[in-house]
Write a structure and sequence with these properties.
Elements (H helix, E strand, L loop, with lengths): L4 H13 L16 H12 L29 E2 L4 E2 L8 H4 L13 H15 L9 H22 L1 H11 L13 H16 L7 H23 L3 H22 L3
Length: 252
């Protein structure tokens, strides 16, 4: 059946927005270019608008075949159904991380383990023989999981995510209210730039890492106590220190 332009736009919007399972009985009667299809699925599964501390939990049972799911991801290798992550799901919930009063404290070993398991489940190659729609959905799901993983893995993007979720986003125009700290940052950058080798920059690298560790510990306490303005200032300091770390890595 051929659809006119208005009909297929409405049909496609309904399919994307109605939280459906992509199963064999749910095939579209038309094809869009690959990049366009991936764009639609990515928009639906995109994690950028997720609320960090929602109470939503992902189901561990496939609603299509009722079999247990291998991970918390909405992808079933038993009946080959794949569907969207609800938009109110937090990055923490995606990986089924243990509940903790402090979302900044992450078991990174557990995070890495679950990330590997999830990527095996939703890798686009795994879904390649199941139709273009499902492969597109797997591609978007895999990208979304990777983004959530990279956000939670390191302290800097993690605190940015947490601050944003709690109404205190870090902005490019943010100013640090610590002139002495800024002078120390400028001095450290000059010393790294003057160093010819990573060995010459080693004293600065060690001192900077000690400051990073202290700042991360400070952020843990501030997030625990939900002191968001102070946590944001500490996050800004961490961003400067992380910049020093990256500059030093370029010497290696």
């Amino acid at each position: 059946m051929e659809l006119d332009e208005k009909e297929w736009i409405v049909s496609y919007k309904f399919k994307i927005n109605s939280y459906v399972i992509l199963s064999n009985k749910n095939q579209m009667s038309f094809r869009l270019p690959l990049s366009t299809r991936q764009h639609f699925f990515a928009q639906r599964i995109s994690l950028s608008s997720f609320r960090a501390f929602s109470t939503h939990r992902l189901t561990r049972t496939c609603p299509s075949c009722s079999k247990p799911l291998p991970t918390s991801l909405p992808a079933c290798p038993n009946c080959w159904s794949i569907w969207n992550i609800p938009s109110d799901t937090s990055y923490h919930a995606i990986f089924a991380l243990p509940k903790d009063s402090n979302p900044f404290v992450i078991d990174t070993a557990l995070l890495k383990q679950r990330f590997r398991q999830m990527q095996a489940t939703c890798h686009p190659d795994t879904w390649a023989s199941r139709g273009l729609d499902k492969q597109d959905a797997a591609h978007a799901l895999s990208s979304a999981v990777n983004h959530a993983y990279q956000t939670l893995l390191q302290p800097m993007p993690r605190i940015e995510y947490i601050l944003s979720a709690n109404g205190n986003p870090m902005e490019e125009t943010d100013k640090l209210e610590d002139n002495e700290f800024l002078m120390d940052i400028m001095t450290a950058r000059e010393e790294i730039e003057m160093a010819d080798t990573v060995e010459e920059a080693e004293p600065v690298i060690r001192e900077n890492q000690a400051l990073i560790d202290d700042t991360v510990s400070e952020i843990e306490l501030l997030v625990e106590e939900q002191r968001w303005p102070e946590a944001k200032q500490a996050g800004i300091r961490l961003k400067y220190l992380d910049g020093i770390r990256k500059a030093a890595m370029e010497k290696s």
